[in-house]
Amino acid sequence: MPSNYYIGETSSKHSNNDSEIDHSKMEGRKWEELNMDCLVNVFRSVGMESLLLDVPFVCKSWYKASLDPKCWECLIFPKYIKPDRIWDNSPLGERLMMEYQESFCVTAFIKSVVARSQRRATVLTLPICCTEEALEYAANESPSLKDLRLHGDLLFKKSTIIPKLISKWKNLEMMSLGSRHNMEEILVQISLHCNNFIMLFAPHIYVGKDEATAIVTSLPNLKYLVLKGSTIEWENLVMVLQGCKKLLGLDVRKCIGFEEDDAEILALASHIPTFMCEGSIYEEYDTYLDLDGDVDTDYYSG
Questions:
Q1: 291 contact partners, CB below 8 Å, separation of at least 6
Q2: What gap in Å lies between CA 183 and CA 159, rounded to an integer?
Q3: Sign of the Cα pseudo-torsion (210, 180, 168, 300, in order)
Q4: What is the pTM of this model?
Q5: Sorting pLDDT into bands at 50, 70 and 90, what band is 87?
């Protein structure tokens, strides 16, 4: 079927053996005739790689639809764009490197993509190679942001500047942290500037006394907390359970530091509608390696 058609409506003329089709009577609607709102609704979910490098080159109407700011409300950059190591890459990063090679500029690229949202972005995940200039630009140009997802490596590299930018995101409702770097100061800034904040996602980190205290002190009205796969000592989990009285969901599955059938933990968590602790165990350890885990962007998609 020609590439400029969709939803083919076929009319067949069969020969005596019913094996031949009269293609001259095939009909269809041209892609450029598809309603613009329909195109935009589809393109909102295709992902950044296709929206940048595939969709705009199909036809003029697709190109026009791809520029609609509604297509750029979810700015989910891949973790790797311009890798430091050969094995740290993504499909989008590989295609950008092939296209632009040495002339590719991370800062200019991030700023150009953020600009397409026209200050309407509600979800933001930045690559670990994000520069300070690009980070500040993204903060200034996303006042409607509700969901911020930060990779552990980016938190480590920009741990001092990120807390200073929280005040730009007054509508922030949830945050995903890939590590505990400067977690206390980040949560303090959230408590000061983000009145609608309800969810913290911080899997695979070490939740010590300082981190638990920060959660309880800065986010006493937190509704959802995800610490899946983290190391959290019994007393620190108790502190969280006693301090965050308004929790509706707490995920501490596969954690190290307490037993999943601990009677006191279960009693303290009995008021939480969704409490998950399956697979958690108590295990003594001498040192703990902060995993700086990836941000799981699909965790709440279901």
A1: 152, 179, 204, 205, 229
A2: 9
A3: negative
A4: 0.77
A5: very low
Closest CA to 93 of 52, 46, 134, 148: 52
**Angstrom distance (rounded) from CA 242 to CA 245:** 6
Average pLDDT, the chain: 82
| Residue 80 and residue 90 in contact, taking contact as beta carbons nearer than 8 Å | yes
Distance of CA 277 to the CA centre of its chain: 24
Cross-strand bridge partners of residue 148: 124, 175
